[in-house]
């Protein structure tokens, strides 16, 4: 029993020693809430001590970037959305922790509310073209409203700007523009398809013409070569007839006899056409 109690005391002592210190990293501020020593605020980077198992430590970034969103309509009825941004330094970590710990979106929403009430009325007096030409800089024409809202959050704004200005994606104007862009794109695709088909037909017709011309040239060349061959055969045959008329007559009779037999016609060596064969037979 004593050993169990001693083990528990050692464990409690180790836990107390382990929880007696905490560290704050660079770029952070810490808030220590203690029922014994109250609240210690804006504790900078480094190693620090606290009451173990009693004090609660909250760490906050020393700088924050907030991007509220503004929605409004221009004087000519165009829906717009602007995305201003602020870079702020945390000057009161306890206050900033109180508003952001439960919901990190609260600081951004509070700045958006301040801008909506203090700046949007002036923005609504601009036309759509003026808003685009201004590139949203009119948001910061009167920064006192945003500075006051930031101060209530424990922040001091050190830089500000606009990340974009456009029509909301769910607005009627954006849908009209998108529809027009889609129609223009479809028209371009249709024109490209017709042009491609026209080029394909022209290329096919050209290829067919070249093929026909090549076939005609080949046929003409073949006919010429056949004529040359026939002429050469006639010449050789004429020479053969001149050298041996009887042999030539025998050849003619033999060819006629063979054609008649192949055609199934009755043949007789008494036929004058086969007279030359009677002597050979």
Task: Write the SSE topology.
Layout: H1 2-18, E1 21-24, E2 28-34, E3 38-43, E4 46-49, E5 56-61, E6 63-66, E7 70-73, E8 79-90, H2 93-100, H3 106-118, H4 120-123, H5 128-134, H6 144-152, E9 155-166, H7 172-243, H8 245-263, H9 275-280
Helix pairs in contact: 3-6, 7-8
- H/E element order: HEEEEEEEEHHHHHEHHH
Using the 3D structure, state the CATH architecture of the largest domain: 2-Layer Sandwich
Oligomeric status: single chain
CATH topology of the largest domain: Tetrahydropterin Synthase, Chain A
Walk me through the structure.
- This protein is of the alpha+beta class and 281 residues long.
- It has four domains: 2-61, no CATH class; 63-168, Band 7 domain (Tetrahydropterin Synthase, Chain A); 172-238; 244-281.
- The protein is built from nine helices and nine strands.
- It has helices at residues 2-18, 93-100, 106-118, 120-123, 128-134, 144-152, 172-243, 245-263, 275-280; strands at residues 21-24, 28-34, 38-43, 46-49, 56-61, 63-66, 70-73, 79-90, 155-166.
- The strands form three sheets. Strands 6, 7, 8 and 9 form a four-stranded antiparallel beta sheet that branches. It has a three-stranded antiparallel beta sheet with strand order 3-2-5, covered by helices on one side. A two-stranded antiparallel ribbon has the order 1-4.
- Strand 2 (28-34) and strand 3 form a beta hairpin.
- The longest helix is centred in the C-terminal third of the chain and has 72 residues, at 172-243.
- It is elongated, with a radius of gyration of 52 Å.
- It starts with a helix and ends with a helix.
- The mean pLDDT is 77.
């Amino acid at each position: 029993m004593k050993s169990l109690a001693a083990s528990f005391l050692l464990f409690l002592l180790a836990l107390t020693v382990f929880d007696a210190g905490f560290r704050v990293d660079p770029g952070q501020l810490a808030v220590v809430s203690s029922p014994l020593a109250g609240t210690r605020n804006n504790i900078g980077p480094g190693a620090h001590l606290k009451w173990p198992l009693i004090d609660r430590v909250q760490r906050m970034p020393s700088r924050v970037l907030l991007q509220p969103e503004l929605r409004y309509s221009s004087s000519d009825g165009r829906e717009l959305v602007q995305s201003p941004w602020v870079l702020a330094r945390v000057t009161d970590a306890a206050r900033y922790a109180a508003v952001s710990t439960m919901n990190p979106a609260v600081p951004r929403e509070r700045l958006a509310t301040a801008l909506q009430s203090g700046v949007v009325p002036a923005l609504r007096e601009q036309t759509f073209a003026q808003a685009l030409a201004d590139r949203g800089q009119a948001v910061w024409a009167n920064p006192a409203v945003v500075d006051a809202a930031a101060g209530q959050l424990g922040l001091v704004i050190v830089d500000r700007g606009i990340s974009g200005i456009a029509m909301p994606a769910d607005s009627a104007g954006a849908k009209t523009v998108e529809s027009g862009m889609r129609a223009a794109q479809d028209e371009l695709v249709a024109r490209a398809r017709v042009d491609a088909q026209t080029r394909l037909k022209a290329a096919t017709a050209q290829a067919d013409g070249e093929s026909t011309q090549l076939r005609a040239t080949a046929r003409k060349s073949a006919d010429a070569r056949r004529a040359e061959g026939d002429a050469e055969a006639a010449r050789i045959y004429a020479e053969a007839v001149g050298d041996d008329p009887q042999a030539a007559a025998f050849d003619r009779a033999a060819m006629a006899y063979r054609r008649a037999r192949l055609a199934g016609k009755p043949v007789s060596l008494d036929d004058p056409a086969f007279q030359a064969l009677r002597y050979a037979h």
